[in-house]
Design goal:
Number of helices: 4
Strand order of the largest sheet: 1-2
Distance between the termini: 115 Å
Keywords: Coiled coil, Membrane, Transmembrane, Transmembrane helix
Shape: rod-shaped
CATH class of one domain: Mainly Alpha
Largest sheet: 2 strands, antiparallel
Helix content: over 70%
Length: 365
Amino acid sequence: MKELQDQETNSKELQQKVDSLTDALAAKVQEMEALMQALDAEEAEMEDLANKVGGLENELQQKNKDLENLEASRAKALKKLSVTVSKFDELHYLSESLLSEVEKLQSQLQERDGEISFLRQEVTRCTNDALAVTEMSKKRSSDEIHDLFSWLDTLISRVQVHDIASDDPKSHLVNEYKEVLQKKILDLISELENLRGVAKNSDVLLQEERSKVEELAQKEQYLKNSLREKESQLVMLQGAGDSAEAIKATSEIMEVEPMANKWAVPGTIAPQVRSLRKTNNDQVAIAIDMDDSNDRMEDDDDDKAHGFKSLTTSKIVPRFTRPVSDMVDGLWVSCDRALMRQPALRLGVIIYWAVLHALLATFVV
């Protein structure tokens, strides 16, 4: 009986163990099912993560391409800006040379005007002298011819009267008078020829003076035309110089830092973009042959860019002071650029700052 009781107790214990093992097995089976479900969820999550990683890699490649395009466009813009600056210097030098040439042409034109006025006066004087000489010679020749004819008439009348009155043996005097008369006539003819030669010479001189005056007038017209052309070129060059100076003063070039340590942590995208001092109104950016791919660069990365911001963006300065704040921003940017381009000016500002603070310290102490 005791053995039966012991066996019964043993069987009960074994039954209890079997039940406990069955419960444990059912719990393990449930746990395995839960683990399988968790494993399926993890596999789905891993697939999602793999897809996300692929998308991020594609986005990374696109950003690298955009960065390369931006670098290429930046190099082109810098090259064109340097060419523009060099051309501006050449235009400035050319405008100065044109100004000096215009001044020389103006002085030459004034000298030519003086010479032309003097030659005109000389021409008028020579013309008046020639006319006066011609009139005097004509008047004198006409008077002499009239006197000659009157003398001949009186002489002929005397000779005729003397021949009719008496046959004087002194008729040889008539031949002498005739010879004297022929000599005087020849002298008058030679004098008339001389007067004609003088008149011709005066006419030739007058024509030469007129040709000189016409030549000087043509030179004057040529100088005036060249002066007008130089002035028009100077105006064009001054306009080009002003536009180039405005471009040089207000240009804004986006600079991109070289990506030395790209993507230090995988899966993070943080392009480092640095812009040169952006202003609101008085600073204008130059868009020189920018690629179409740059249009895809959105403005959402402004919070990542370490750029210049206007005073109106702060909460301290009110909105109605925008013109004054823009003027202050423009002065700040121009001073900053001057300090960036001139190391001596930076050194002078540092020395001035140190001396000023030293003086303030001495006065306070």
